[in-house]
Design brief:
Blueprint (H helix, E strand, L loop, with lengths): L2 E3 L6 E3 L3 E2 L11 H13 L4 E3 L8 H13 L13 E6 L14 H4 L2 H15 L4 E6 L11 H11 L3 E6 L10 H5 L5 E5 L11 H8 L2 E5 L23 H4 L2 H14 L9 H10 L6 E2 L6 H12 L5 H8 L13
Parallel strand pairs: 3-4, 4-5, 5-6, 6-7, 8-9, 9-10
Antiparallel strand pairs: 1-2
Helix pairs in contact: 1-11, 2-4, 4-5, 10-11
């Protein structure tokens, strides 16, 4: 495993982290399989884990807390820092994803509510401190309300939280720049992949300037960039992907993925190519692919070890940028 500096925190985090939504928020999750996958990721050097209260109403946090406590004090894990980094997210009070411009701080994150959910997450995790707390939706203009900057500072001074950052709404990377510029955010979590390259335009340069860490989420575009989604793909009732891969999005996604197939190097996979594309960007601190199965853990870690993509291939992939706007189904 390779490690990267997590912005101005100075943490050394695994460049391939672990996204934990699938462990409790998607159908087909198996707790025993999830624990085995987490253990294997740690054995392979993974030390950054991203979860959220909303992933199973605290269930994913409980799974993560259990594995972190299991490995606590084990000098053979944690990478150069010998620490397993825990990142989680507070859900919006109105339970609306994505945020909308007319949502207020009181609608989503009033200060007493923030404190309440820090305590809930600490209880679920069974820990005294959360390394990174994030707000699961974000509006930069909420910073106009002085209560939010004060709440961010208070959480860090309490000793219960080491760092703060927003989880930026889908396809809105500019709606997070102010949090970085004003120094409130030690990190930002943003969608960044072969299709979604727009964080490079303004967000990444500002993160670089302010030494804010970048967590790249949705590296496979919810599955499209694994090359396994087809026009006939179906998911069980209640699975979130049914609301994302609505007919208009499914058709376009399959077409865009199909255009990438001729570029996959011999002996590689589209998923490996997708991860390596992201790792070519040194502004990224860590990627958090979902890894519910052992085979996914091993494949994703192997992609990191394979190193950066050749410049020629990376240049061709840049031509597959797909700029999209938020919609009713893009939560």
């Amino acid at each position: 495993m390779n490690y990267r500096r997590f912005g101005r925190t100075g943490w050394n985090v695994s460049e391939v982290g672990y996204g934990m939504w699938g462990l409790a928020g998607w159908t087909g999750s198996d707790d025993a399989e999830s624990m085995a996958s987490l253990r294997r990721s740690i054995e392979l050097g993974c030390n950054f884990f991203d979860t959220a209260w909303a992933y199973g109403d605290g269930k994913s946090e409980e799974i993560l807390g259990k594995i972190v406590r299991e490995f606590k004090g084990n000098a053979s894990v944690g990478g150069p820092d010998k620490h397993l980094y825990v990142a989680t997210k507070i859900p919006p009070k109105n339970r609306r994803w994505p945020s909308r411009r007319d949502f207020t701080l009181d609608d989503c994150y009033p200060p007493d509510y923030i404190e309440e959910y820090i305590e809930k997450s600490l209880k679920n995790l069974g820990l005294d401190t959360i390394d990174l707390i994030q707000l699961h939706t974000w509006e930069d203009r909420w910073l106009n309300d002085d209560r939010l900057p004060r709440a961010i500072e208070k959480m860090k001074q309490s000793g219960k939280v080491r760092a703060f950052g927003p989880s930026i709404n889908r396809w809105e990377p500019s709606n997070g720049i102010r949090a970085v510029l004003e120094g409130h955010a030690e990190a930002v979590q943003v969608i960044y992949n072969i299709f979604d390259q727009n964080p490079e335009d303004a967000l990444f340069p500002i993160c670089r300037m302010k030494q804010a860490a970048v967590i790249a989420r949705v590296p496979f575009d919810e599955g499209t960039l694994t090359g396994t989604v087809t026009l006939d793909s179906k998911w069980p009732a209640g699975d979130w992907r049914n609301t994302y891969f609505v007919p208009e999005n499914l058709k376009s996604s399959v077409e865009h993925a199909g255009a990438l197939r001729p570029l996959v190097p011999p002996g590689s996979t589209m998923a490996e190519m997708a991860l390596r594309f992201i790792l070519n960007n040194t502004d990224v601190s860590t990627i958090i692919p979902g890894m519910r199965k052992l085979k996914n853990v091993e494949a994703n870690v192997a992609a990191g070890k394979a190193g950066r993509l050749p410049a020629e291939l990376h240049g061709k992939l840049r031509g597959h940028r797909w700029d999209r706007n938020p919609t009713t189904w893009s939560q």
